[in-house]
Amino acid sequence: MASISLFAGLALVVGVGLGAPSVLEAQEEVVEYRQSLMQAFRMHMGGVGAAMGDAAPMGHAVHHARAFNGMAQALANAFPTGSEGGRAVAAIWSDRDGFMDRVTAIQTATADLVEAAESGNAEAVSAAMQAVRGTCGACHQTYRDPASQ
Ligand code: HEC
Fold first, then answer.
1. In principle, which of 45, 61, 92, 125 could form an S-S bond with 51, CB 3.0–4.6 Å?
2. Where are the domains of the chain?
């Protein structure tokens, strides 16, 4: 399911370069794009989890953690001014500093996850995963609309 959404998101991003969408369409595509980033977060969390169990080789945790950290860097520019929509709340733009603190938190937590995965220490990976998960909830609590959609 997550991979289907991700694929749809990527298809939209490719589409941006091909057509000349209206302002509203362009705005919707930004919303779709950042939602696909979120789906990628979820997918890479699952990938690290699979690598910690028997479903995938332990070495895959490193690939997922690095991609995850890359997505967290991309998050910094995924909510440009004028891209209101989806479940994003107005505080993302009115309280920019607070929102960017939450972005920095996931960037730092996923960088720690990369380090833990590279060490191959299961306990360190598990602790880092828990910290990453905390940054998801902390941001959603304030900056994602719980009621709509
Ligand atoms: C800096 C803030 C922030 C962080 C950190 C964050 N999210 Fe989100 N997330 C949002 C916002 C805002 C939305 C709503 C976006 C929209 O609809 O435009 C969202 C939406 C989502 C969605 C729904 C996407 C969709 O298809 O509609 C998922 C799934 C998600 N986040 C997972 C995660 C996971 C997992 C993490 C942590 C690994 C995470 N998020 C970290 C802010 C954040």
1. 61
2. 22-143
User: By three-state DSSP, how is residue 144 classified?
Assistant: strand
Average pLDDT of the residues in 76-87: 95
CATH superfamily of 22-143: Cytochrome c/b562 (1.20.120.10)
Closest atom of ligand 1 to 75 CA is: 1
Report the atom number in ligand 1 closest to the C-alpha of 86: 17
Question: Which ligand 1 atom sits nearest the alpha carbon of residue 5?
Answer: 26
pLDDT classification of 21: cutoffs 50, 70, 90: low
Residue labelled with tokens 């362009």:
26
Convert the pLDDT of each residue in 107-142 to its tens digit.
999 999 999 999 999 999 999 999 999 999 999 999
pTM: 0.87
Nearest-angstrom CA–CA distance, 53 and 60:
11
* 79 C-beta closer than 6 A to ligand 1: no
Distance in Å, CA 84 to ligand 1 centroid: 14
